[in-house]
Amino acid sequence: MTTATHDQKVLMDDVYSLHRHFYDFTRRFYLFGRDRLVRSLAPPPGGTVLEVGCGTARNLVVAAKCWPEARFHGFDISEAMLETARKSVVKQGLAGKISLAQGDAGNFDTRALFGLEKVDRIFMSYTLSMIPLWQEAIERGAASLASGGSLHIVDFGQYERLPGFLKRLHFKSLNDFHVFPRRELPAVLRRVAEEQGLSLEFTPLYRGYAWSAVLGRP
Fold it and tell me: Average pLDDT in the 2-21 region?
């Protein structure tokens, strides 16, 4: 584990050692678009799905119930969050359906983590705004896609069609929790799509409150 990775792990464990216990309840009020992303995954029967930065495994549980024929995997840098995730997966009766591991989103290897050469569907839900090496996370995710695979992203937008004072207030509260909406996300997605020969769909949601994107491999 590199020094940067260790430092990020310590920070995330510190942030979520308490908040993980009520994370899912509070986040449903402002992490919009997560279930929309899950419904769009449509993995092939028997296909593989990976969540980068799975947190409490809330999204993986929803996805596993929505797409029961697929196999699900998730990793997170925070051991505190993974402790909650493991309990949730077992409680939902999905221990044989969802596998979890500890890993760094900015430097992950699907083969080392889960024995997967390539993955059919990868998704990143409100995690890029918390990952220091977020551009590398997108690059690695795109490079890990199987033929016909897709990388699905939803995260905070830039409030393009919302009042400026709301953006200032919300971003200040997010920053206090080490969350930084990525203004450069559209440009980075276009670059990765061009470099890796991928298709790109980009959709602002809720007047720019959130951004949704799908990178697809032919």
Answer: 50
